[in-house]
Amino acid sequence: xxxxxxxxxxxFWLAIALVAGLSILLGHMLNQDAWILSRHPGISNLAQxxxxxxxxxxxxxxxxxxxxxxxxxxxxxxxxxxSGDPLVRGTFPRRAAAWEARQHPGQDTLPWRRLTVEYTxxxxxxxxxxxxxxxxxxxxxxxxQSLIWPLSALGIALVVLTLFSLLVTLSITRPLSxxxxxxxxLGQTTxxxxxxxxxxxxxxxxxxxxxxxxxxxxxxxxxISSQRQLLRDxxxxxxxxxxxxxxxxxxxxxxxxxxxxxxxxxxTRECDRLESLISEILxxxxxxxxxxxxxxxxxxxxxxxxxxxxxxxxxxxPVQLNAEPGLALSxxxxxxxxAVDNLLRNAQRFNPPGQPIELTAQREGEHITLSVRDHGPxxxxxxxxxxxxxFFRAPGQTAAGHGxxxxxxxxxxxxxGGRLTLANHPDGGFIAALELPLTPDxxx
Length: 444
Prior knowledge:
444 residues; alpha+beta; Heat Shock Protein 90; five-stranded mixed β-sheet; three-stranded antiparallel β-sheet; 13 helices; 10 strands; 15% strand
């Protein structure tokens, strides 16, 4: 992952390094004597070169060397020994030296800049004192020329820092702008996952954030759509029992006392149906609304209890439990119990009497599969994809339940990060399987 943290850190580190380098450079420039002595082409190596000529060729050659330097760079030079006596005549007139001695020691009032340097010969170990006098016009011209490359370096550094700052700023503000637009669209329920597709392909923190935001947006859009669909389906499903209650009440108002007594069981039955429908709707809503933390679930004990309850409710349809020992996972036991119980009740509706219902539990890799198989007629292939949707009932099965049992089981599986698969068994009957991961991912 190309971390955004390291990019920002590298940019600021580079800026600090450039500023530090320029500060050191400017600090050297402020030390004018050292800067001139080391950088001015007329005196940078003059002491060494003059000493070599003086010691190898004599005083006349050394004097000639100074005169040629003066003609080229307009710099006057005096050379003294350790006792302060001149070794050569030099290029600085004695009258100018006397006039300089009568002036104030400060150099600001002199028409030249005076610099001194001591040089020790590596051959003879003699020490020479060289006095340089550079006219101010010559020094100013050299300063202007010598400052070209530091100023150029400063300009280049500023351009580089500006580009880096611009890149860092754009790398932060552009993704934030895209996320802001995505948040706005999400609030307006017009969010599209491909709006952050390019951002999600990045391999840094913004890419991870965009991927998580896409998952959140898809989940929210799915919840909003499912809630709207559920509201429409609930409104439609509640009309039928309410209409039957209205008819029964109207008949009861006009009926004789004997006929009214016969209508009471019908009213009670319709109230029970309505209560059962509302209970299943609330159960379906709780699966999505439950925000409790996952806990350790012992599946063997849970499945044993479900087997006993199913056998009591339908003794003519025994439940055969085939479960591996020691099955356990992290999840919500109430949801799992409710999901498997709905699968068993659905199987009991279509399983013929005398035929067993097979409840199987086994571990497959990082998942645990809980399957319920009946020996009924199964479902038409064209309806398998719709089974599990709220209030969907296959043709010919409209009297069997409200179409919420499989929907509750599917929502419970998705809440755990798993899935519900529905299929016709190859040997006949219908099989519903819950695939649950050992640890829920928490995104569903």
